[in-house]
Amino acid sequence: MRNPRSSTPKDRIPELLLRDPLAEFLGALGPGETFSYSYDDAVKLSGHSCPTVAGSYLMTVVALQALYPGSIPVRGEIEVTIGGAASESTWGPISQVVAFLTGAAPETGFGGLGGKFRRKHLLRFDPALKGRLQFRRTDTGATVIVRYDPTAVPAPAEMGQLLGEALAEDAPPQVRERFARLWQERVKAILAGDPKQVVTIERKDWAA
Description:
Distance between the termini: 44 Å
Low-confidence stretches: 4-9
Number of strands: 7
Mean pLDDT: 91
Shape: elongated
Structural class: alpha+beta
Radius of gyration: 18 Å
Order of helices and strands: EHEHHEHEEEHHE
Strand content: 15-25%
Strand order of the largest sheet: 4-3-5-6-7
């Protein structure tokens, strides 16, 4: 697999530290310890690196930084609403990355222990959000809505033609290699810049 960080300074790609009370309770983490998540982890989950995976990761980073200013986010205590249908466009893949990072899960998620640590039904889909993602803390009700727009980092003009050529059964190796290189260069550019270049916080609500 091509490493999406191979030519991107490591310190420019934000990593996520999260507490996880369930992991502490079951002994996977010690008291006060945290899980560390990187973009590479999102790539491993998805099986590829693309602008959508990058956007899913960055939206989560920006939202959690806003929800937990100066403190460590708590995995499993974040409710997420995806602004599209699960079967439409890229919303399903986006939800998988967000669920992986936040612990929020749909109806297939963990049901909890003794009324605690529930992850089930913390992730839902609502097309009324119109392409935005809503993150809500279950402890305080603090909420942020974010939107991702990768057009701030446009794809090279030749990408469309190269995609068709690279998908052909008899595509020369150099065509596929050039397509993959240009594709990952755009992903690296999205990740290396200020996340707020492509992710906008559209609303904050700290009311409990």
